[in-house]
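so the lab meeting is tmrw and i was supposed to have these ready like two days ago... anyway. pasting both below. for each one the top line is the aa sequence and the line under it is the structure tokens. i havent really looked at them closely yet so no promises
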Amino acid sequence: MGPGQKSLLLYYVLLFAIFSCHGNEQFFNDNRNFILPGSYNIPWMAGIEDFRPFSLITFPGTHDSMALYGGPEAKCQALSLRDQLRAGIRFLDLKVFGIGDSLYVMHGIMYQHSTLKEVINTVRAFLSEFRSEAVLIRIQPEFFEKDYVNKMVRNLIGNDRHVWVNSGMPNMGQIRGKIVFLQKSTFTLGIPLIDTDKKGSNKVSHIKDKDNKIISQLNKATEACGGDNAVLTYTSGTGFGTLWGMFLTPRGVAEKVNPWLNKYLRQFFPNHPRPCFGIIAMDFPGLDLIQTIIQLNMY
């Protein structure tokens, strides 16, 4: 085979790979080398009116946002934090463990190669570039360190006026350019958060059952939108710890759930106004799914 034939063969192999992967990449993404289209609208929150209440906005988010390490059972995301934010993600789900004067980002016992300070600095850099945006953060202390973690976070943010730690419900104009903390049980800074999960909602034996659970959770979220709390729905799941789903990793669940979720949400596009679902936190979301969630705010 000559050089020209080899080049042609390589071209067709690459073309096949692109088209064979294209369907999944729209709603599910496990490719860390992610490139945004040149026309992509990164500062999508600029299209939301200043007067719209926070509790009537639907936010795309990630579950265990920094879980990029630890093998198939632990990995929940492919994109770096910077890339998630530029793709449109506006809710971050973080679990931290304190040692000395630092808070380390964890997923269970797996260290995720980042400190909370590094996460905050990345978010601050993003918000300094895109001042129309806001980034919500939920912090969950690992291993019963509630008081210690709250104190450490307060020391970390200091008196930064670009961090929202109040429990009152703001409108969009009040949180532009800011990190917005969400509080629940073990973390006490920011807007009160309720989540629609029941115990065991993340355990998946059959994908169809997971779809039905998500529908129930999103119905609850819609009912709670417009109140005094932020509302959170996790669409993530794993079969680890179950009998029939023992081989379902977070990636395997997201690969099936994400395209279904996109189709489910798009049925509401003809509605005026479109319903609010609060925060939707996902594993391995693709650009089209993120955009579908964003577009629920545009009517």
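ok protien two:
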Amino acid sequence: MSVVEYRSILKYRLMIPMFPTDETCPVCRKACLDKYGEHALHCRELLGFKYRHDFVRDALMDILRRAGISAKKEAPVNFLTDPTEGRSTLRPADVLVFGWEGGKHACVDLTGVSPLAGFRENGFVAGQVVLKAESKKVEKHAKACEDNQHAFVPLAFDTFGSLAPEAVRFLARVQRVVHSNFSTPQGRGFVFSRFGFSIQKGVAAQFVARLPAILM
């Protein structure tokens, strides 16, 4: 992580303004491009919106590879859709882990959210947003996976690095596999530290791509 990226993450976590003023987003023109950087991270119309998601997904794939767990990213499974729109929204699994649960393959679906979503209306409750994100993923895809003899793992995290319970359970199991395969001290905590770092690295890269040069 570069000095500029590290500085941007510190400002974001400490809620120190990164942009000169609040202004309308020049891309979507629907929301305020706030000086704390929240909209810059989550605007779906800004270039690189999926960068953080894909960066964390690739880090997860690297973790699984190092643990000796067989998996494939962006695997076509032919049944993951938006239930309200049907097969027009057919999409691959972010990561497909082979033989993960009772011989069934597991569809791992990553989602990253802001812990400050709804902060002004509802106040801040630690972990509340990431729990809602996990619940929405389960509601959306768990039944389709079950009907097609697959396990479903929602891997929800927020931009501060908090993990939803299912994400913790999944990564803890991966960590146990690492421990069983590699007994060196360097392997202890590897999974969670690597995954957590990838979240912050992805967030920092998004900020740096949008910060005015004068503020770097």
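from a quick look at the 2nd one: The beta strands are 23-24, 32-33, 71-82, 86-101, 104-113, 151-158. The chain is about 45% helix and 25% strand. will dig more after coffe
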